[in-house]
Amino acid sequence: KQEVTQIPAALSVPEGENLVLNCSFTDSAIYNLQWFRQDPGKGLTSLLLIQSSQREQTSGRLNASLDKSSGRSTLYIAASQPGDSATYLCAVNTGTASKLTFGTGTRLQVTL
Amino acid sequence: EAGVAQSPRYKIIEKRQSVAFWCNPISGHATLYWYQQILGQGPKLLIQFQNNGVVDDSQLPKDRFSAERLKGVDSTLKIQPAKLEDSAVYLCASTASGVLSYEQYFGPGTRLTVT
Fold it and tell me: Stretch B46-73: mean pLDDT, rounded?
């Protein structure tokens, strides 16, 4: 059974800092991995999707890496802004049925 | 392109009552998912449809939850009777067919409070 863990559970940083969010999964036989953002009371917004054959994906100030063999992914946020404050969730897609297994998220607060 | 639509956005009911949620996926998306997200946790898959057929409902509490997607487009999730532990956000997502990425797109969710 796939299990996904995210560390830390919560993080507070001052504006402008670079930061790294971590995600680990127990079964390395994944199809892809997605990072999502969730604002309070809202749905999930897809940030980046990394296929199992890829090592990283970049979008603006975000960079996600994937090390499938060790069961790890990181989300790097450069020059953080208060608008980045949200919960960040990673999810792995295991098997042909495109089923996502989610971590519990990292709650990020970027302060002025 | 319109996103995934869900209604209602909020619902408050008493335990033992019934409730239904509606989802309309992105046009042309054959695969539809219902997730339950309890406060402080990640979403958990309840049921997955491919067109109007069920692919995976292994985590759906079938004694009280039911879902259908009769015409392979929009879907309804029902809870009857509701329990206090059903308080959660119910998220609907969809994926296009024939796309290798299998990227899932989520709706805004329905926040259910059972009192």
Answer: 92
